[in-house]
Design goal:
The complex is a heterodimer of chains A (about 260) and B (about 375).
Chain A lengths: L2 E10 L2 E11 L4 E5 L6 H9 L6 E6 L2 E2 L5 H5 L2 E4 L11 H7 L13 H13 L15 H14 L4 E5 L7 H18 L2 E5 L3 H7 L2 E6 L2 E7 H4 L2 H8 L3 E6 L4 E6 L3
Parallel strand pairs in A: 3-8, 3-9, 6-7, 7-8
Antiparallel strand pairs in A: 1-2, 1-4, 4-5, 9-10, 11-12
Helix pairs in contact in A: 3-5, 4-5
Chain B lengths: L16 H5 L3 H22 L7 H13 L7 H38 L12 H14 L8 H21 L13 H25 L4 H9 L7 H20 L1 H7 L3 H6 L4 H23 L5 H13 L3 H26 L6 H22 L1
Helix pairs in contact in B: 2-4, 2-14, 4-9, 4-12, 4-13, 4-14, 5-6, 5-7, 5-8, 5-12, 6-7, 6-12, 9-12, 13-14
The chains are: A alpha/beta (about 260), B mainly alpha (about 375).
């Protein structure tokens, strides 16, 4: 699924959050969005997911305007792991993961065998099968995040939006999930758009990177091209050293305290 | 790569009552509480100032249903009058109010993402009480219709004012423009103002103050078939709307963004369910006064049994709410030497029960 942003603008009241952003996301690729706090990363994802409509410009999903698609069509096109994973009611982990199947289940139907198989397969793949019967309200932050991540994967959409989806996972789970979704998009030609804070994870996993600052894209392109001292200094205002690391087989960034 | 999570795999499996009951057992619970409710209606019919034997009741009911009205004895005639003119309308109104308050409670807890919300969170009860006070004070209560009508108008006006107050067109933090914090806060403010207004009305009411106080505490005494009809219509419509959107209500508990990405039209559904829940509460309050704790407590207790899935929670809460409120009303009507206001009784029973549940869930 190809996604195009055409001169998209969005503001809260009089504060512009996203200014004239144009970008294109192609199938089969993993995009990393990097930028300082308040640079509009989450808002950009909200615009792509149709959660908020742009003030100006448009979001095209496979050449169709997002606003013209029904809620259900969007739910079958994109899935989201949002930053906020707090769940107030004691649903079981299995119930929460099953919620990812709702765009495919009729309002008054029971989940079919396909739905149930999909849910148990995903729980197995993401390593949360043992939590199946636990209540989400009793889980740790990282476990909860894995649970809602699994829910999004269950939605089986060609586009996966991740908003700091690894923020509470330990490194083992982070790498496992990254490996899982990377393999998935290679197989299904899906698209991943992932907001990250960890530059080194982005450098190692993303095919392309967008640097966002004050609602504008400062740099975008292939990871090995845009991941540079200059860009990092420009965007984050920190000094760094960027070099190719043999062990990771990717560029890595090192920082020195000021 | 190792399968992550295996190191935590030995977590003790928690087999709880909830698991056993959920699934197929849900239908059994529905059947059980339907039976209990029916039994309670029969028991309640037989109890009171004149006690009517069960056999007699079923005879009279069957007679009425199949239309052969051969009332032979004068006692049978009295019994028929007592049942159809006095007890049955009261009992059915009471059960319907219990059901409606419970559904309303489920809806509010679901939308406001707060298991401690109740039908009166948005100040509906204060609005209804204020409306009723005005009607009583201006002595409009001479005709029986106007007090409920005023109460209902007050409740609706309050609801729309609270929604207006908390609505913001800027989508910051909440796409629906109705964040639960704003709603709760607006509800509290408006209710506080109205309470002060009620106190003032009581202050200037002189001899009518006792009428106001009695009305505020809630009662099912002398309810008519009309009252039942009104509540029943609201209950049926409310239940249909609620159960239709029950699944969306489940998804809303994942948070607005997640729910939206799963295809839920947050704005529309939040507003619709909010109005549905408030209307149910408003019609209840206007008919029977302020009856607290049912809408808070029943969904809370039922959630222990069904889990938080609103598709199960709604129907079972409805039955349990009807059963419990009828139970309480039967106690105050037929068991206690003096009828005490039902609102007081539910608060006196419900409050401590709630404390216990609350403390227990903290400890667990």
């Amino acid at each position: 699924m190809e996604i195009q942003l055409q001169k998209v603008c969005f503001s809260h009241g009089n504060t512009p959050i996203i200014r004239q952003v144009s970008a294109q996301f192609s199938p089969g690729k993993f995009y990393g969005i990097l930028g300082p706090n308040g640079s509009g990363k989450t808002t950009l994802l909200d615009l792509i997911s149709g959660f908020i409509p742009p003030d100006r410009g448009q979001v095209l999903m496979h050449k169709t305007n997002l606003a013209a698609l029904s809620k259900k069509q969007i739910a079958r096109t994109l899935s989201l792991v949002s930053q906020d994973y707090y769940i107030n009611f004691p649903f079981s982990v299995e119930e929460v993961v099953m919620m990812g199947r709702h765009p495919y289940i009729n309002r008054f139907s029971q989940p079919s065998k396909i739905d149930r198989d999909r849910v148990s397969k995903i729980m197995e793949d993401t390593g949360i099968s043992h939590l199946k019967r636990r209540k989400v309200t009793e889980l740790s932050g990282g476990e909860k995040q894995r649970c809602i991540f699994a829910r999004a994967l269950c939605q089986e959409t060609p586009v996966l939006l991740l908003d700091e989806a690894f923020s509470n996972m330990d490194i083992n789970h982070t790498l496992h999930f990254l490996g899982l979704i990377k393999k998935m998009i290679q197989k299904t030609k899906g698209t991943i758009i992932c907001v990250l804070h960890d530059l080194n994870l982005a450098a190692a996993w993303a095919d392309e990177i967008l640097f966002l600052k004050e609602g504008e894209i400062l740099a975008k392109g292939k990871t090995r091209e845009v991941m540079s001292q200059e860009n990092i200094e420009l965007v984050f205002n920190v000094e760094s050293k960027v070099e190719f690391n043999e062990y990771v087989q990717a560029k890595q960034v090192y920082f020195k305290s000021k | 790569m190792n399968h992550p999570g295996e190191k935590e795999g030995s977590n003790k499996p928690k087999s709880s009552l909830k698991q056993i009951i959920s699934g197929d057992y849900f239908l059994w619970m529905i059947a059980l509480f339907s039976l209990l409710l029916f039994g309670m209606i029969m028991i309640s019919l037989s109890m009171g100032y004149i006690s009517i034997p069960m056999g007699e009741i079923s005879g009279i009911l069957v007679n009425r249903l199949f239309g052969n009205m051969d009332m032979t004895t004068p006692t049978a005639e009295t019994f028929t009058a007592v049942i159809f003119d006095i007890r049955l309308p009261r009992i059915l109104t009471c059960a319907a109010v219990g059901a409606a308050l419970s559904i309303s409670g489920v809806l509010f807890q679901g939308i406001l993402l707060n298991p401690l919300a109740d039908p009166y969170t948005l100040g509906v009860s204060a609005g209804a009480a204020f409306g009723a006070c005005i009607a009583i004070l201006l002595n409009l209560g001479a005709t029986f219709v106007s007090v409920p009508a005023f109460a209902f108008t007050g409740a609706c006006a309050t609801l729309f004012f609270v929604i207006f107050l908390s609505y913001s067109s800027s989508s910051k933090g909440s796409v629906s423009g109705l964040s639960s914090n704003n709603l709760i806060l607006s509800g509290i403010i408006v209710a506080a103002i109205l309470s002060a207004g009620i106190s003032f009305l009581k202050f200037i009411a002189n001899e009518q103050v006792s009428v106001i106080i009695f009305w505020l505490m809630g009662s099912f005494a002398s309810k008519t078939w009309n009252n039942f009809g009104v509540i029943f219509v609201f209950l049926v419509i409310g239940f249909i709307i609620a159960i239709y959107f029950a699944r969306d209500l489940n998804l809303i508990s994942l948070g607005e963004k997640a729910a939206s990405s799963l295809g839920v039209d947050i704005k529309r559904i939040t507003l619709l369910l909010l109005v549905t829940g408030s209307m149910l509460a408003a019609v209840c309050v206007s008919v029977s006064g302020i009856i607290g704790f049912v809408g808070l407590l029943v969904p809370h207790m039922v959630r222990f049994v069904t889990g938080p899935d609103n598709r199960k929670l709604l129907p079972l809460s409805m039955l349990v709410g009807a059963f419990l409120l009828l139970f309480a009303d039967t106690i105050t009507r037929a068991v206690l030497p003096h009828e005490i206001p039902i609102g007081v009784l539910t608060a006196l029973i419900g409050g401590p029960v709630f404390c216990w549940i609350f403390k227990r869930s903290r400890l667990a």
